[in-house]
Structures are given as structure tokens and as C-alpha cells.
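User: Predict the structure for this protein chain, please.
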Amino acid sequence: MSSTNTLGDAFDLAFTSLKGVGNRDDYVYRAALTQKIALGRHSLRTATVLNELRAGKSKADLVILNGTATAYEIKSERDSLSRLEGQLADYRSVFASTCVVTSPMQADQVLSLVPEDVGVLVLSSRFRLQILREAIDSPDRIQPLQLLSTLRVDEALQVLELLEVEFESVPNTQRWSTLQEIFINLDPASVHKASVQVLKVSRSQTHMASVLQQLPATLRASVLAAKLPLKAQQNVVKAVSQPLEAVLSWSEEQRVSPVL
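Assistant: Here is the predicted structure, written as C-alpha cells:
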């Protein structure tokens, strides 16, 4: 690289070597989903992207909320499929739509393991997401009590308000148990739809849209997942635009924490 290249160019070059088939780890797949679906097919003005969202005993790698909730489980060529069955059972109890994103070398095995309603995507050698099987959107399949566990108390109360379900005032120590008693009897499709509406607002990332546009595509997934305060986001934008010569002259402290 020449002295005219920026820190962002260096990240792009590093990512090019990381995305070769056989070397790809979780972040390469997460970057592909972020670039091509979250910010490509959708946008932060119409959809919300949640990273590592708990569902039952598992955590979905990526969840995209638009008109529905779709969970994406990443199984890179470095990952074992031994936990996949249990993970998908958890996701299908919380999200209306579930997909597995995997490598070409694992695609056939994944197809043979997952339920018919689970979508399967392959990240090709050309860094393209190819659909092997479309996911079936089934909000009536979810379990309201499991979905409740992904919500904060204030979000759960907003869901009940949308559904016009009365919640009597109780001491704070009894709120969660009372919510559980209510949610277990709710209609799955209705509570799922209301939860998506609430989460799209309560966890909206619309404010990050302009920042992400100023970053190299290879870093957007990382910054989106990091939940940085506005000042730190601006510092990242400034840092990646710096010439490499300037970056190499930074002090050790600046290199370790350039966003602070």
C-alpha cells in the first residue's frame, strides 16, 4: 500500500484476505449479512438490526426486524453443526422466520439437518449470498413466553398496550411474574407482530445511517454491533479516513483507543 492510502483502505485489504473460502470466520458472514441484507435489501430507516439477541438458551447471531423478525444463525466453515438443532428450536420459538447462513462445503449437511421452514443461505466464494431455501414466515409458531424473555419490562408493557391488554399496577418485584402470567395466554401471531413494532422503535438505529455511510463497508457490521456513543462513532469515521502515514505516527495509546 502507498502512503496515500488510508486506515480504511488497510481494513479493506485485510478483509479481502479474510473472506477467502476456508479462512472465513463469523465476522465475514456477519459483514455479508449486514452489507447485503440489513443495509442492502433493507435500510436502517425501515429495519432494525440486533446482534446476539437471546432466545431461550441460545443467542441469535443477527436478527433483522422489518415487517417481521428474522433470525440468522451463522455456521462458518470453522463452526461445528453439533448445536444447530437446539439453537434453531430456540429461534423458532421466538422469531417468525429463521435462516442458517453457511459455507458451500457445509450446505448439503445443513439442508439435511434443518426443519423445512428454516431458510438456508450460502456465502459463495465471490462473497455473494445465495438462497438455497427460502425461510417460511410463521408467527403463529412462536411461544409468547419465550418471546417475553427477549424484551425489557418497558417494552413488554408497550406490547400489551398495543394489544389492548390490561396490566394492573403491581409492585416492581412482581412485574415480571405478572407479565409471564399474561404473555403465556396471548395469541402468538398477535404478540409477535406487536413486539416487532415495539422493538423497531425502542431499539431503532436510524440515527446511525449517516455514520455507516461514511465508513468502509467492511467495518459497518462491527460499528453497528458495538453500540458506540455518537462521539465515538464520529471518531471512528475520522480515524479511518486518516492516511496510513499519520496512523503509524500515532502513540500507542491512540492506536489502542482511537475512538475515545
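The first helix runs from residue 7 to 18.
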